Amino acid sequence: MIGNYWKSAWAHASSNRLFAAINTAGLAIGVATSVLMFVIVRADLTHNDFLPNYRNTYLAVTAIIPSGHPTDYKLRSNHQVAGLFKAHFGEIAAITRLVMEPISVRNGDVLTKQELVYWTDPDAFQILDLPTLHGNLRLALLRPDGVVLTRGMAIKYFNEEDVVGRRIEIGGEPMTVNAVIRDLPSHRTELETGIFASGRASHSELARLDATPSDGSGFTVTALTYFQLAPGASVASIEAQAPAVMDAIWKARPPSMKVTLIPLRLDKIHLFEGLNPGVRTRIAFSVLIGALVLFLACVNFVNLSTARSTRRAIEVGVRKATGASRAQLVLQFVGESVLYVVVASIFGLALVELMLPQVDAFLGGGMYFELGRDPRMLVTLGAAGLALGVVAGAYPAFVLSGFRPATVLRGLIIAPESASILRRVLVVLQFAILIGLTIAAAVIYRQREFAATDALRVNTDQVLALEAECRPALMNELRAIGGVRAAACTSSDLFTAGSFGPVNLEGGTAVTASIVNVDSASFDIYGIRPRAGRFFSLDHGDAAFPQRWVINETAVRTFGFESPEAALGQAVGPFGEVIGVVEDFSLGSLRKQILPTVYKYGGGRSDQIHLKLAGQQIPEALHAIDVAWRKAGADQPLTRFFVDEHIRNLYAAELKQAQVFTLFAGVAVLLACLGLFGLSAFTTERRVREIGLRKAMGASSGEIMRLLLWQFAQPVLWSSLVAWPVVGWLMNRWLEGFAYRINLEMWVFAAATAFATVVALLTVATHCYLVARARPAAALKAA
Amino acid sequence: MLKVEGISKTYRTSEVETRAIHDISFEIRKGEFVAIMGPSGCGKSTLLNILGLLDQADSGNYWLDGANLTGMSEKELTNLRRRSMGFIFQNFNLIDDLTVEANVEVGLMYRGVGTARRRKLVKDALEKVGLSHRARHLPKQLSGGQQQRVAVTRALVSEPQLVLADEPTGNLDTANGEAIMGLLGGLVEAGTTVIMVTHSQAHAAAANRTFYMLDGRLVSDTLLAA
Lengths: 783, 226
Ligand SMILES: Nc1ncnc2c1ncn2[C@@H]1O[C@H](COP(=O)(O)OP(=O)(O)O)[C@@H](O)[C@H]1O
Ligand SMILES: [Mg+2]
Hints:
The structure holds 2 protein chains of 2 kinds. In chain A, 42% of the residues are buried. In chain A, strands 14, 15, 16, 17, 18, 19 and 20 form a 7-stranded mixed sheet that branches. Chain A is of the alpha+beta class. Chain A has 3 domains: 345 residues, no CATH class; 215 residues, no CATH class; 185 residues, no CATH class. In chain A, 50% of the residues lie in helices and 18% in strands. Chain A is globular. In chain A, helix 8 packs parallel to helix 21, helix 13 packs antiparallel against helix 21 and helix 23 runs antiparallel to helix 24. Chain A has 25 helices and 22 strands. Chain B is globular. In chain B, helix 3 packs across helix 4, helix 3 runs parallel beside helix 5 and helix 5 runs parallel beside helix 6. In chain B, strand 4 and strand 5 form a beta hairpin. Chain B has a single domain, classed as P-loop containing nucleotide triphosphate hydrolases (Rossmann fold, 3-Layer(aba) Sandwich), CATH 3.40.50. A 6-stranded mixed sheet of chain B has the order 6-7-8-3-9-10, with helices on both faces. Chain B has a 4-stranded antiparallel sheet with strand order 2-1-4-5, covered by helices on one side. By secondary structure, chain B is of the alpha/beta class. The site of magnesium ion has 3 residues of chain B, from helix 1. Magnesium ion binds next to helix 1 of chain B.
């Protein structure tokens, strides 16, 4: 019996190959896409869950709150926090610090000059109980020469995995590998490197920090500080008292600035908007698009299966007449569509297996998909597949089989009005999704381009930044290089807006401003011209007058000046005098608002040198820069980067989202096309007879095509009506996550609709052409 | 074998009410070959469908092998159809996607015949109607006459006691029609009861009893001497 059902299913599939292929492929793609999205989102939502105690483990994140400005969050906190927490809070069961340092690491010939190493408190692995491959992790860092490597690092330096007991040089000092742990899933942890060295080592950065007394005039964020709570303790009381702890560290805190510590549970760090702006929207978008693609695939599947099965009314009638019971027909037709679901799922899951490594590598690792090890997922997939199969097979199985055979065989069953309305609604919905995704993809892409170029309002082409202190000898060497057009001593605050200071205004109020040290060439390098007044210059001897300020337009407003011109020559705060105004610009993330900024010349810290290179001889210039660096007597290798690349990296997450989004939007478009193609194949097929008659009566192919095309263009127009407001609202919400953003433009919407119309017309035109071209006799006979 | 008494059926659509058959009574004995004639729309197919349990009458009684079918459940009716009936339709009603042999096999599908035996029966039956060489073809690759022979084979292969044929020759030319009549004649000789709707005087003459219908009523019942 089952064998015969199988034969019938196979016969039906092989004589309707196009339908079978479209139906299976569409569903397979839908399954693959949604499972991939699920895996991606799960990785986002389960950060650090490979640590056994992650639910009770927190990271102390620093929050800097300048009054009247958005809070700035730092993943790290000051290295004194751990000691103070431990001393003040009985609720804390354990606390540990990891301090990262780029340092030379070496085993024999394998040498990395700037390897990232975590100098770690000895009890770190009590809290971060990472999966161990060799050695005893908990005891590994007790001795001052202890080192823990990940498997990857062990292989990198020793070319083998079990290297417990081997020596490795860190910062020129020999240390001992005491444990090897599994590689860290990079997308699911904030830990950035695979070398952990005992902070007890006298040459460690951690020991150095602990040994350096602090005068409380400022504070730095230096350590990842993890802690665990005692049973029953609540994190809220710690959070409440954290400002006092920070006051003990930063004794000279100005009243206009607050600093506190926020305990973030390990799995929530990644989801914290302050550190990872836009992450929630990104996840929501991933979920949404995964759901949409799956929805499209399922709708297509049910639609096509149902449309097809009306052709099988005769089969149902004949089988009933020869004695098939209703249960047997249900079994046959539901079984058949379940079979399609199973085949499609197998293809879909195979596709996931195929694509996951690429997606994982692209998005940063840590994703996994093991159906066998995930019985809940298996059951969910199975149940969902069965449900889908039942729905798709419902029409012949439950509806057709319920009629008396005489009725079915007479061909008297006309799909009820409600069914055809439902189908039309689904088609409209499908197009709405297609249009919506097209608009969303376009907006995301345009915002990203805007963020990386226009919004900066500065020219970052061929600007190279060196991580180097500004010494006159080095500057002279650099300026002498042929390929270097200009060089400027600049603070890295230009990128990070990391320095703040209070500015006292008339009337006694104080505001916080971002402070950036520049020199006479800094603005010039970025092609920035004064908005009013002038910039710093050697001719005016500005270097000798640290009170001469250039301020940005936001500062003009914040400080209460009428216009940039009005600010010129005015005294600000106790020390400042405005000599020039610069347009608002930012080399940092556009998700953050531009702050009122004071640019100073000289006197302050300048930890970077920015160079404008000539376009032609970049490699030669880079080489000459390295030579100059060594000539200036530096022992550390030079760290340098191109500013435009650096800025693009700031938007890496957005870029990846845009790419993934575009890809999946493409999939959705493909599915919508497949669905439409299949559906129009069905409708035109049903109308072959009508068309045959019309042709017999003398209608031209052109007239018939127009008739059919109009039928399919209509839903696109309806779909736009649905899609535009919804996607407009959604994309507005998304754009609100950026302080600087593009406007939603009407033409993008119109273009998406035009695109959908073209898609609709193309798919349908193919069928129409094939059908309309047929001779009338053939068309009539085919019916 | 079968007996109906006062059966009527009325179709109701939203606009019109059509009285398809009205107060029909007759009895047919085992092995009889009955032809039903009458103008188009007089209710022949409706009557045949009711006799074949493909449809139900609004009123009246129907006995098959002495059992009263009125008020039987859908399930019991399905069982009866499965055990004792075969159908032949004017438009063949073959399943497009199945091969000739698979179509014939459908006639045995629901009768609890084992796979191997089913295959053999199908093969023998196709041989009998001279279509063995077409066993693996699809219906649309066959001529109308051949298709109807496949449909007849599907009805016969399970050796039903009662065969109901609705204008089996209606879509066929003379030669093919004769071939189908030959097959039905063979059945009757083997003792099967056959009820056939036809418009052809000549084909009706092959039967040993002719019903004539008009406007849903049975107006004459002519018994021919054998
Ligand atoms: N399902 C139906 N719905 C409505 N009217 C029907 C239906 N089937 C048959 N009829 C009507 O019942 C009458 C008898 O039909 P039918 O039994 O098919 O006649 P015949 O087979 O003799 O040509 C006709 O008037 C026909 O239009
Ligand atoms: Mg009829």
